[in-house]
């Protein structure tokens, strides 16, 4: 279970670094936070899981998405 | 390729830093851990050992964390204020309205109804849950920081539900800033009360009062301060975009 979660987290982290689209990267980071919150809950650290879910998947995603909204695309799709 | 080289170097550095953890077979220091495991919940009265440690034994660290958060929010708001001051202005002093592409306008019109209908109502539920996490941090997982961040997401939902404008006074940036400052002031006063009554900095000030009630008070104050701070940051971003 935990190995599966960690592997998915690793894949999401690499994808977030390599993707050219900032929005895709942000959503990958948000999913990463959700999975790591699940991992913390599996490892019996519910306090950290609540923090990770609220900060990582919630507030920081909002901040990133709003920062990206203030930018313009440089390249043609 | 410099990026590859930097990536390789950082992986090597991480391996070098983590290697002693795996290579050494010296036992971890366990005195404090064993003490806290045996006595932590009894001495502080908090069932949740995490809360017992971070407000009962290490409240000074928690105070430092709230200062870090305060400085971070202040810095971010200051950067945003400087950014809008540097924005191009007309001769009269009014900010130049940036030309909006029709696609973006269509997109922002698309999002309004669905998000406003949903998130305005979800916000209240999330606020209640945040208050629960904050106030019951001594018996269940959670505490001031966690509850505060959940409260902040509730504030963000309320702000999203109102098209980026401030509907209720709670979501106004000015009020949130006031709440955060007041919360920090109350936290400092509560920390110093113990000094006045001779118990020591951050000690439960009341004579005969059990420490768990002080933990509840600290949790509530920290939660309100953190929620107002992070909520202020998000609300400032949302309303600046709308303006």
Description:
The complex is a heterodimer of chains A (77) and B (243). Chain A is mainly α. Chain A has one domain (2-69). Chain A is 81% helix and 0% strand. The radius of gyration of chain A is 14 Å and the shape is flat. The model of chain A has no long low-confidence stretch (mean pLDDT 89). With 243 residues, chain B is mainly α. Chain B has one domain (41-82, 111-242). In chain B, helix 6 (144-160) packs parallel to helix 8. The two termini of chain B are 43 Å apart. The chains are: A mainly alpha (77), B mainly alpha (243). The A-B interface holds A 46-47, 49-51, 54-55, 58-59, 62-63, 66-67, 69-70 and B 48, 50-51, 133, 141-143, 145-146, 149-150, 152-153, 156, 230, 233-234, 237-238, 241.
List keywords for this structure.
heterodimer; A: 77 residues; mainly alpha; flat; B: 243 residues; globular
Short description:
With 77 residues, chain A is mainly α. Chain A is built from three helices and no strands. Chain A has one domain.
The backbone outline of chain A, from C-alpha atoms, is: flat
Mean pLDDT of chain B: 80
Whole-number average pLDDT of chain A? Answer: 89
How many strand units of chain B? 0
Which of globular, elongated, flat, extended, rod-shaped describes the shape of chain B? Answer: globular
Largest interface: A-B, 15 and 20 residues
CA-CA gap between termini of chain B = 43 Å
Q: Based on helices, strands and strand pairing, what is the structural class of chain A? A: mainly alpha
The poorly predicted ranges of chain A are none
Structure annotation, total helices of chain A:
3
Calculate Rg of chain A over CA atoms.
14 Å
Task: Return the string of H and E elements of chain A.
Answer: HHH
Query: Total domains of chain B, how many?
Result: 1
Report Rg of chain B: 23 Å
- Major sheet size, sense and barrel closure of chain B: none
Write the layout of secondary structure elements.
The complex is a heterodimer of chains A (77) and B (243).
Chain A: H1 2-18, H2 22-42, H3 46-69
Chain B: H1 2-23, H2 31-44, H3 49-57, H4 59-86, H5 102-135, H6 144-160, H7 173-196, H8 211-242
Helix pairs in contact in B: 2-3, 3-4, 3-8, 4-8, 5-6, 6-8, 7-8
């Amino acid at each position: 279970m935990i190995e599966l979660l960690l592997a998915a987290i690793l894949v999401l982290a690499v994808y977030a670094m390599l993707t050219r689209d900032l929005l895709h990267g942000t959503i990958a980071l948000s999913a990463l936070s959700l999975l790591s919150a699940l991992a913390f809950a599996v490892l019996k650290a519910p306090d950290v899981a609540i923090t990770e879910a609220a900060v990582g998947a919630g507030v920081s995603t909002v901040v990133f998405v709003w920062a990206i909204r203030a930018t313009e695309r440089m390249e043609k799709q | 390729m410099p990026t590859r080289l930097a990536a390789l170097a950082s992986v090597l550095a991480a391996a070098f830093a983590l290697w002693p953890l795996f290579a050494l077979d010296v036992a971890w220091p366990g005195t404090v851990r064993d003490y806290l495991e045996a006595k932590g919940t009894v001495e502080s009265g908090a069932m949740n050992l995490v809360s017992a440690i971070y407000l009962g034994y290490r409240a000074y660290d928690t105070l430092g964390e709230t200062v870090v958060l305060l400085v971070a929010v202040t810095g971010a708001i200051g950067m945003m204020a400087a950014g809008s001051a540097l924005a191009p202005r007309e001769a009269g002093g009014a900010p130049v309205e940036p030309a909006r592409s029709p696609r973006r306008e269509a997109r922002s019109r698309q999002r309004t109804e669905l998000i406003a209908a949903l998130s305005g109502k979800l916000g209240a539920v999330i606020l209640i849950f945040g208050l629960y996490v904050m106030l019951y941090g001594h018996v269940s997982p959670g505490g001031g920081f966690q509850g505060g961040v959940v409260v902040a997401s509730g504030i963000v939902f309320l702000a999203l539900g109102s098209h980026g404008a401030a509907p209720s006074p709670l979501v106004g940036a000015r009020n949130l800033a006031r709440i955060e400052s007041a919360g920090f002031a109350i936290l400092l006063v509560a920390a110093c009360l113990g000094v006045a009554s001779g118990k020591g900095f951050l000690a439960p000030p009341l004579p005969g009062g059990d420490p768990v009630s002080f933990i509840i008070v600290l949790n509530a104050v920290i939660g309100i301060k953190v929620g107002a701070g992070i909520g202020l940051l998000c609300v400032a971003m949302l309303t600046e975009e709308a303006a």
